[in-house]
């Protein structure tokens, strides 16, 4: 007896496919079109082939921006992941204070990115900002518009303040999923606090931590609004990350061909990193299973 296959379900998925094609695929194809052509306006295009890709690969500007971007993302992960785990471990596990902490940790995530940048831009000003005024009163020379170190510290602390709570919430969810029997067995064996964390909590949190690392890396790798509002990419090009450099190239200089090639290479790097994280997460699930 042959099994009847009903293909009508595709009609339910069709609107989603059309929406994705309109919002993602078509703009991507437009970028690909610009990346292999040159234009002098008036909607006239000339075939350029891989010229823009070769130019970007030889561009010190792009490699410098990539280096700053990788350094920023690395610092962010090195701070936010351990800090988020520490916060989650010290949060109440149940009761009123647990709910209170969860709500409190969620508040920074609800603030729009441009508002976060504006808050820290004002907060760090020496004349009217609480942070800048306090540091100046203590005799500390702090000016994120002129000093490179101050600019980097500002955008890093801003990102840590904004996004550490996401890591903490994910880690807290992983901790909540651990059965009490594990802790009871560890208590019977008189395991130390470090061993409980090392052999019980950390392995059980590994899945959500991989998700947290993936999300935070991707967000930090594509960050634009917050550092642009605070420093504008300065002083000089000290905080000009990949996304800021790309926008300057496309909109500031109107170099559409190089900017399109730049954005495709940017996209491929993100896609590659996402694939690596997906592979690692899949292997972890198989190992646990």
Q: Could you characterize the architecture of this molecule?
A:
Helix 2 packs across helix 12 (256-288). The chain has 289 residues and is mainly α. The model has no long low-confidence stretch (mean pLDDT 87). A hairpin with a 5-residue loop joins strand 1 (37-39) and strand 2. The two termini are 36 Å apart. Helices cover 74% and strands 2% of the residues. The radius of gyration is 24 Å and the shape is globular. It is built from 12 helices and 2 strands. The chain has one domain: Orthogonal Bundle (MetI-like fold), CATH 1.10.3720.10. One of its GO terms (biological process) is transmembrane transport. Residues 66-277 form the ABC transmembrane type-1 domain. Belongs to the binding-protein-dependent transport system permease family. It holds the Pfam family BPD_transp_1.
């Amino acid at each position: 007896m042959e099994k009847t296959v009903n293909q009508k379900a595709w009609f339910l998925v069709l609107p989603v496919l059309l929406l994705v094609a309109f919002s993602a695929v078509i703009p991507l194809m437009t970028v690909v079109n610009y990346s292999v052509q040159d234009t002098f306006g008036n909607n006239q295009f000339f075939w350029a082939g891989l010229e823009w890709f070769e130019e970007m690969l030889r561009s010190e500007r792009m490699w410098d921006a990539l280096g700053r971007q990788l350094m920023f993302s690395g610092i962010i992960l090195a701070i936010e992941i351990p800090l988020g785990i520490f916060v989650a471990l010290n949060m109440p596990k149940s009761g009123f204070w647990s709910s209170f902490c969860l709500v409190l940790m969620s508040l920074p995530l609800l603030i729009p990115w441009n508002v976060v940048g504006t808050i820290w831009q004002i907060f760090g000003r020496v004349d009217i900002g609480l942070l800048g005024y306090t540091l100046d009163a203590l005799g500390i020379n702090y000016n994120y518009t002129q000093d490179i170190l101050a600019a980097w510290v500002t955008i890093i602390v801003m990102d840590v303040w904004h996004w550490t709570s996401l890591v903490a919430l994910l880690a807290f969810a992983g901790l909540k999923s651990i059965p009490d029997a594990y802790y009871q067995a560890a208590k019977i064996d008189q395991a130390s606090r470090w061993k409980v964390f090392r052999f019980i909590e950390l392995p059980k949190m590994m899945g959500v931590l991989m998700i947290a690392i993936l999300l935070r890396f991707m967000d930090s790798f594509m960050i634009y609004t917050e550092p642009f509002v605070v420093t504008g990419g300065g002083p000089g090009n000290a905080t000009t990350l990949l996304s800021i450099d790309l926008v300057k190239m496309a909109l500031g200089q109107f170099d559409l061909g190089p900017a399109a090639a730049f954005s495709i290479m940017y996209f491929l790097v993100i896609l590659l990193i996402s694939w690596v994280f997906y592979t690692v997460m899949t292997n972890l699930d198989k190992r646990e299973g």
